[in-house]
Amino acid sequence: MRRLLPARPSAARLLPTFLLAALILIGGLASPAGAHPMSTSAVLLDVRDDRVEGEVQLPVDRLAVAVDRDLTRETVLGAERAFLKRYTAEHITAVGEDDRPWTVRLGTGSVRTIDEVAHLVYPLELRPPDGRVTTFDLAYDVIVEELLTHKVIATVRYDFDRGILKTDDAETLGVFDFDTKSLKVPAGEGSWIRGFATTAGLGIEHVGEGADHLLFLLMLLIPAPLVAAGGRWRAAPSSRRSIVRVVHVVTAFAIGHSLTLALAATGVINLPTRPVETLIALSIAVSAVHALRPLVTRGEILIAAGFGLVHGLAFASLISDLGLDRGSLVTTLLGFNLGIELTQLLVVALMMPSLIVLARTAFYPAFRIGVALLGLLFSISWMLERATLTSTDPFEGIQTWLVDHPLVVAVTVAALAVIARRTAPQTSSDGDGTLRAGAH
Amino acid sequence: MSTHSPTASSPTALPAHGSLPRGGRRRRALVRRAIALATCVGLGVAGCGSEDSSSTSSEASSSRSSSATSSTGAGKANTAEVVAAANAFLTTLSDDEKDTAVYDFDDEAKAKGWSNFPTALVARNGIEFADLDDDQKAAALKVMEAALSEQGYKELEDIRIADEYLSEVGSSGSGGGPGGGDDYGADKYYLALFGEPSETEQFTVQFNGHHAGYNITYYKDDVSLSPTLTAIEPSKFETDGTSYAPLQDKRDTTIAAIGSLSDSELEKAEIDGSFDDLLLGPGNDGPFPDPEGVVVGDLSKKQQDKVTAMIRTWVDDLDEEAAEALIAKYVSEYDETYLGWSGATTIDNKETYVRVDGPSVWIEFSNQGGIVVDGVHQHTIFRDQTADYGWS
User: Fold this and answer.
1) How far does the CA of residue A263 sit from the closest CA of chain B (Å)?
2) Least enclosed by CB within 10 Å: which of A168, A231, A436, B160?
3) Is B160 on the interface with A (CB under 8 A)?
4) CA A60 to each of CA A41, A68, A77, A120: distance values in angstroms, whole numbers, following the listed order
5) B124-164, pLDDT tens digit by residue?
6) By the CB < 8 Å criterion, does B84 face chain A?
7) What is the mean pLDDT of residues B64-86?
8) Does B239 touch chain A if contact means CB atoms closer than 8 Å?
9) Subunit contact A14:B186, Cβ cutoff 8 A
10) CA dihedral B382, B127, B114, B384 (to 10 degrees)
């Protein structure tokens, strides 16, 4: 008999296993029902004000077992089309809280490959008789009425008033199986405040985890405590002046991106993603060059406003993925923008005091040039990658680490400021200016 | 991969380094998706064995105590041997490793942290063989050797070899399923203890990887093998010059039992609905459905013997003496025990599904299409409806 000697797998091979295992542990540790990786059905619901939309995904091979017919990708849309639609519709009912049945309508079926398995997909529409969506019971036993081992995972993909948007935070409702043929769908609950809070959270997340937006902001902040004079940077005459300039920069950026965000989200303008992303990388490069040497007087405000327009387009592409109702669009825009501004202000609050202190020391030119060169390097790498000139970004690891550890970055800069303040000579300008001892 | 994620993207596609420098967001999305998935399947797991406590049995052993636990076991368990082996295993572990391996007896993880999905998909309870050195591993296997009969332990070893075989042939991927062969392996097995090993208090030995999952609970001299999954892919294979056919006894006796039915009995024995897998496999701990099939007590002596032979191939995996006592108990319940089938009754048909359902015994035998390699393979589960995961 063969011996089962321990073959210690390399750590690298096990890493994905551990990661996934950890994720599932975080998720509360539950085992997918069933046995082998096996195709399941899915019901996805979008709860609107006057109706519930969504779709039904039926694995073709399981459907074939359930209806006891040979089915292929072709026949489910051909010879068997009418039969399957009737069969499916017969096994879905919805009843409101007042015990009145809702109308169930299936759209035109199509075949889609999901998790490597062919699925027959029907758009689904459930309408309450009085046009008012309340909590309802969804009874569903397509396939599982015959194939008792089958599982149907039901998910609420969109319900604005409950803070569920079409991003990744779909809420699982439950699983239909041989024993569970009906699930209660909570709807008509919550309020627009939940949706507003969720979109604000998305705004915070989007900026807070987007290395490109943060880097752009940082590049604009670096020259803010300085003034351009004769094609060079000099220390601003006062801290107050620096603060005013920061406010200008942040406001200009906010106006710029809010404008295009609103226009793009309402569909007035529509630009493809990739050029926008490439332009964002360019915006960082331009602001980095400006931080090295002033391009024009007050250039950072022009750059903030101008490229703010581009960043707004990127924000809008996220909003368009949320599957919004017309009614909730304004709430979403406001919420999302609020999140973005809050994050920006947080970055400013974390970085600016240190920068203002640093700017008064002889160390600042080296710091400014170093950070600007780094920003330039990152942005060029992004530009090449986003314009598909290169396939990977060699700096992605560093960027991800920096973005994931904002406090470490802020504390490091603050520590630098303290050290520089104590050791480096104080200057009144960012170069060869005269000493302004005792100014603070 | 296995289950629908609500956003319909497969876990395999997720770790890709995308074009935009926002890995953090993508990762968080993945976490959220995993949570959603875990939550949803969590909901699918009904309260396990909650009705067990009320069951009684005339043959319940002397072990019934004045404590809250009421055992329905048949006695004769080699509890002392298993406790000794389990303690010997624990002494090979560091404190940290012990923390990983030992749980409270009633920890909810017990029912959730075992599966026959790839270990990457469902995190397992306990300590992984891959993390053990030779001595620790040998001590871990000694626990299973003590708990199982000679043939039961050989079957476990053969199933592990089959998993190793899958990992070797799996990369060529001739099977139709989404599970890759390298998801499996002889060392992707875990041992967990629920409760400290004890001759007076309940504890469960949980051993699980891919095609073998044992939950063996001891309470004084009672033992329950419920639930225990034994499965195999491929049914027969050859590796390193040796031929293997684990579960051959289970295949033979099951087909013999259902094959002994006359046409009219077969008609009566047919269970409504189709089954492409175990109904009450890992993660599906109930409820037990209403019984369907023919009453075994109504069959001829010869037919009943075939059913007993079938039940025996599952119960016999347990240490010999305790197994005999349990089989006697299950046979005594034949007047309320049902034999049923669905799909087909031949060994080479992937729709073949056979079930034995008594007041205590529950066996499912389900043929499967090839996942990693072509051809039919089997999933089976044994449960004792009065002692699932032990007694409450």
Assistant:
1) 23
2) A231
3) yes
4) 10, 12, 11, 6
5) 999 999 999 999 999 999 999 999 999 999 999 999 999 99
6) no
7) 82
8) yes
9) no
10) 30
Measured distance CA(B35)–CA(B13) in Å, rounded = 17
Q: Could you tell me the two tokens for A210?
A: 């987007």
Any A CB within 8 A of B91 CB? no
Assess whether pLDDT exceeds 50 at residue A336. Answer: yes
| Amino acid letter, residue A246 | V
How high is the pLDDT of residue A436?
41
What integer is the mean pLDDT of A97-114? Answer: 94
Compare CB distances from A115 to B4, B185, B242 and report the shortest one's residue: B4
Average pLDDT of chain B is 83
Could you read off the pLDDT of A212-224 as tens digits, one per residue?
888 888 888 888 8
Residue B344, CA distances (Å) to B214, B263, B264, B313 in order: 28, 13, 15, 21
Decide if B37 and A172 are in contact by the 8 Å CB cutoff. yes
Closest CA relative to residue A234, chosen from A354, A423, A364: A364
Mean pLDDT to the nearest integer, A253-276: 84
Tell me if B177 and A25 make a contact (CB, 8 A cut-off).
no
Chain A positions touching B122 (Cβ under 8 A) are 24, 31-32
**Does B44 contact chain A (CB < 8 Å)?**
yes
What does residue B276 show for φ and ψ, rounded to 5 degrees?
-105, 10
Q: Cβ contact (<8 Å) for B113 and A29?
A: yes
The pLDDT tens digits for A395-440 are 877 877 877 787 888 888 888 888 888 887 766 544 444 444 333 4
pLDDT at residue B299 greater than cutoff 90: yes
Amino acid present at B87:
N
Cα dist. A234→A218, A248, A439, B379 in Å?
Answer: 18, 18, 16, 76
- Tally the C-alpha atoms within 13 A of residue B275's C-alpha that lie toward its C-beta: 27
Q: Which residues of B touch A171 (CB under 8 A)?
A: 36
- In the block, residue with structure tokens 């195999």: B232
Of B21, B123, B242, nearest to A393 by CB-CB distance is B21
SS3 state at A378? helix
Inter-chain contacts counted by CB atoms under 8 A, chains A and B: 262
Contact between B128 and B188 under an 8 Å Cβ cutoff? The reply is: yes
* Closest residue to B279, CB basis, from A5, A178, A212: A178
B295 — contact with chain A (CB < 8 Å)? no
Lowest-confidence segment of A331-335, B284-288, B335-339, B343-347 by average pLDDT: A331-335
B157 close to A (CB below 8 A): yes
* Contact list, A154 vs chain B (CB under 8 Å): 40
Cβ <8 Å between A36 and B287: no
Give me the pLDDT at residue B27, please. Answer: 36
Closest B-chain CA to A146: B273
Mean pLDDT of B322-346: 97
Q: What residue in A sits closest to B33 (Cα-Cα)?
A: A168
Q: pLDDT tens-digit profile of A284-325?
A: 999 999 988 888 777 888 888 988 898 888 888 777 777 666
The values of phi and psi at residue B239, to 5°, are -145, 140
**What does the pLDDT look like over A342-352, one tens digit per residue?**
988 888 888 88
Angle at B380 between CA B377 and CA B383, to 5 degrees: 175
Per DSSP, B248 falls in state H
**Between chains, do A209 and B118 touch, taking CB under 8 Å as contact?**
no
Are the Cβ atoms of B3 and A40 closer than 8 angstroms? yes
Task: Give me the numbers of helices (H) and strands (E) for chain B, helices first please.
Answer: 10, 14
Considering only residues B209 and B1, tell me which one the structure prediction assigns the higher pLDDT. B209
Calpha distance B354→B338 (Å, rounded)? 11
Q: Among residues B143, B289, B164, B319, which one has the least CA distance to residue B232?
A: B164
SS3 A96: strand
Rounded Cα distance between B181 and A8, Å, is 17
Distance from CA of B325 to the nearest CA of A (A): 30
User: What is the C-alpha separation between B202 and B335, in angstroms, rounded?
Assistant: 31
